[in-house]
Design brief:
The protein is built from 16 helices and no strands. By secondary structure, it is mostly helical.
Length: 268
């Protein structure tokens, strides 16, 4: 899944290990504006800022806008990529997440993963493994002939267990390689808009209710705040007019009516 504009802008800054203040000094754009460009609720980024940031990071404006996943090679020749016709057709078909594929291929351990796959598929280590197994068989035969151990003899069993199964060995290696890569990719995706939330809906509701309960305000204001949290609205960003508008709607809630009714009963 594609990153949002805000995530792309933030990721590029984080990659360079820059603070907003340091980026301000190097681009001339204010740190407050730069921070707003990274915020989830940002609505507009000026053309000037987009061009300035694209030039500073050495990427295309199309990449920042999410129109392409290519940062620095918008017009790369297919011949230079050495892709087969089948591979090009698969990528163009849009049936796979090419951004995720890109993350996999560019991971620092991908070369190791590919090497292990190549060694097994092309049988590069097959002869060495066969020679090792043959040596173990010779050693076992000599021990059996000389000492005539029982069937459950520990040494004879160890020699038998020392046989290397090529398929099992490389399956295990590839498994470890891909597990490590996937774990790194998973960590990199935490908190991104295209990733599943850390907490379940029930946990989020529990946290929202606890925070609302701590909010010092009327029952009506708490109800509005809970509504904002559940709909991902920022309560402190609402204007007074918007709060009043929500208040008129909230007053029709059965939750508010039941609260008022209970208070009335207690007073009697």
């Amino acid at each position: 899944m594609s990153l949002t504009i805000q995530e792309r802008i933030k990721d590029l800054r984080v990659e360079r290990k820059l603070t907003l203040k340091e980026l301000e000094e190097q681009t001339g754009l204010s740190s407050s504006a730069l921070g707003s460009y990274e915020a989830d609720d940002t609505k507009d980024i000026s053309h000037y800022a987009l061009i300035k940031l694209a030039k500073f990071y050495g990427v295309t404006v199309d990449y920042l806008l999410g129109l392409t996943e290519t940062k620095r090679h918008p017009n790369a020749d297919l011949a230079d990529l050495r892709l087969s016709d089948t591979m090009i057709e698969v990528l163009k078909a849009g049936r796979m997440d090419t951004a995720l594929l890109g993350e996999l291929v560019t991971h620092s351990d991908f070369v190791k993963l590919l090497a292990d796959i190549q060694i097994y598929v092309e049988g590069i280590a097959a002869m060495q493994i066969q020679n090792l197994n043959a040596w173990v068989d010779v050693a076992r035969a000599e021990i059996v002939e000389k000492y005539q151990p029982e069937d459950n003899d520990r040494t004879a069993y160890l020699l038998q267990a020392s046989h290397v199964d090529e398929g099992e060995y490389f399956t295990s290696r590839v498994h470890r390689d891909i597990d490590a890569i996937m774990e790194d990719m998973r960590k990199a995706h935490l908190g991104r808009s295209d990733s599943a939330p850390k907490n379940s809906a029930a946990e989020e509701l529990k946290q929202d209710l606890e925070e609302v309960a701590r909010f010092k305000g009327s029952k009506l204001e708490q109800l509005i705040m809970l509504f904002c949290k559940q709909t991902k609205l920022r309560y402190n960003k609402l204007t007074e007019e918007e709060k009043q508008w929500l208040a008129r709607i909230a007053q029709k809630s059965e939750l508010l009516k039941s609260s008022v009714s209970q208070r009335g009963k207690k007073q009697k």
